[in-house]
Amino acid sequence: PTGKQYAGHITEVDEEMRLLKFDRDGDKADVVLVNWQSHPHITGGFSKYELSADIVGAMREYLEKDTGCLFAYYQGAAGNINPTSRIAEENANTSNPKNYRIHGELLTMHAKEALANMTALQPGLIKVHTEQFTGECDHTDGSLASVASQVIAYFEEGHTPVETQRFAEPFGIWSVYHARAIGNRAAKGKSLPIPITTFTIGQVGFATIPGELFDTIGVAIK
203, 124 in Cβ contact below 8 A? Predict the structure, then answer.
């Protein structure tokens, strides 16, 4: 399942897990970077905004215990892919923490398979390049920014996040946090400078963008 019930239409899902392992000298633990296109998320929906270690915490616990390596997770372009919806539908319940453990176990199993079949790469220079991309802001509409101001004022009057969400939803705004983001973007005008950085470590390449990208964009970048 691709999370359609949570995120609307998803055109394609990047099924590839990528790992990069750094073998360190002496008694220092080796380091494993794991890239997986699935979105760790808050718990409780828009009403709570509580952070959760989610699948990342579970996978780190299992992988570090099984391999003795230090673990680091870097998320692919997966803003629209809910983690628990990538496993069987009966487990696609974002309110049940046991499903994070199930997903973490499954990912650990695949990661261990990959670690057992890795190819050594030749070392090389680290090269970095950054350039500014000017993106158009599609939340600079005056009426939407005005509504966002009303939502913020409503919240600051003492209403709860749940009450504010209900007040905001008819206007196409999902929370006071969303309203503040709209206001911030509107204040910046119709364009926004976005730094895009690429770097290579020998034969391995990375591309980073400071935003929540969806899967189709990630596949296109690859």
Answer: yes
> How far, in Å, CA of 75 to CA of 108, rounded?
15
**Residue 196, token pair as written in the block:** 């895009």
29 in Cβ contact with 69 (< 8 Å): yes
In sequence order, what E strands does the chain have?
18-22, 31-36, 70-75, 126-136, 191-201, 204-208
Question: 121 is written with which tokens?
Answer: 């790469």
| Residue pair 126/83 in contact by the 8 Å Cβ criterion | no
Q: Express each pLDDT in 127-148 by its tens digit.
A: 999 999 887 766 556 678 888 9
Write out the E strands in 43-187.
70-75, 126-136
Question: To which residue do tokens 């390449």 refer?
Answer: 205
State pTM to two decimals: 0.70
CA distance 205 to 118: 17
CA dihedral 180, 185, 187, 191 (to 10 degrees): 180
Q: Which residue has tokens 């670690």?
A: 115
Q: Are 63 and 69 in contact (CB under 8 A)?
A: yes
Alpha-carbon distance 191 to 139, whole Å?
Answer: 10
